[in-house]
Amino acid sequence: xxxxxxxxxxxxxxxxxxxxxxxxxxxxxxxxxxxxxxxxxxxxxxxxxxxxxxxxxxxxxxxxxxxxxxxxxxxxxxxxxxxxxxxxxxxxxxxxxxxxxxxxxxxxxxxxxxxxxxxxxxxxxxxxxxxxxxxxxxxxxxxxxxxxxxxxxxxxxxxxxxxxxxxxxxxxxxxxxxxxxxxxxxxxxxxxxxxxxxxxxxxxxxxxxxxxxxxxxxxxxxxxxxxxxxxxxxxxxxxxxxxxxxxxxxxxxxxxxxxxxxxxxxxxxxxxxxxxxxxxxxxxxxxxxxxxxxxxxxxxxxxxxxxxxxxxxxxxxxxxxxxxxxxxxxxxxxxxxxxxxxxxxxxxxxxxxxxxxxxxxxxxxx
Length: 366
What we know:
Elements: E1 2-5, H1 9-20, E2 25-28, H2 35-39, E3 51-53, H3 55-63, H4 69-75, E4 78-82, E5 86-90, E6 93-97, H5 101-112, H6 114-139, H7 150-156, H8 162-168, H9 173-182, H10 196-204, E7 206-211, E8 216-217, H11 221-232, E9 236-238, E10 243-247, E11 250-253, E12 256-259, E13 262-265, H12 269-276, H13 299-302, E14 313-315, H14 326-345
Parallel strand pairs: 1-2, 1-13, 2-9, 13-14
Antiparallel strand pairs: 3-7, 4-7, 5-6, 7-8, 10-11, 11-12
Helix pairs in contact: 1-11, 1-14, 3-14, 5-6, 6-7, 6-10, 8-9
């Protein structure tokens, strides 16, 4: 049995993937799901509760756990479609920013002029490079000291803050400032690479759910669809279950003790410390919104790593290096599933991009 502590997106994503490869999975959560919870936004980082960013993370999760996302949504009379362009209030007035490179260029040229449009395009192009450097640092692979090399830090421009990007962005500078404020962080201290959230939207678009009548639906309905997928996979959801203690091979709850082969804890680092008896983080601070408060780029080094000092105990949460966004938590859950499965079975369930080639056969002699 594998126990997941906390019905977070990271926990649910890990549970779905592990159940798909025939592990018995139990998810424990101390609060029951209510209608209010189901209707709440997936993340306070998104002002639009209907917005779905980086739907590829959702598609990959559903594909790797059974029926593809489109089929699962169809069972609930839902579809995923492009969302309307974003509109922002800036010092230059109200600006509409389409979610594609050419669309942004033409829109900004008409609104603020070619020079400002060029500066914005070049800035997001630079952030595209930062995104490529971030992907092996806890997004698509586990963050390790060896991965955070001098070359990685150079690509991330670790000496650059969101306030620096705001100055370079001209009339759209407030977009970078707001990225920091939504994370309860000082723009002069938050690393500039967090601006990749804007380049991600330009690359992958903005999406939303609609129902059979084409009416926009809250993005949180994706969680309902995910719960149905977990039920199909046989994952046991135990709501209103308080976990008191976690040790290797053993989870103690208010209802008794569970013996298990692995535990994935998806709570905050401070709750993890209380459950395991480990030391709480010294420098890391929680944001008043979600995830960590960024004091500098080095906050990345203070975030909890996937593998803990306790054998068979793993962490995957909104405090993981990928970030607290819904898509980031799904990718964090995937990394947890890969590591747990490999440690238990010796098998690597990570996807591969290698093209299949037919085997060569020696001709049979006459």
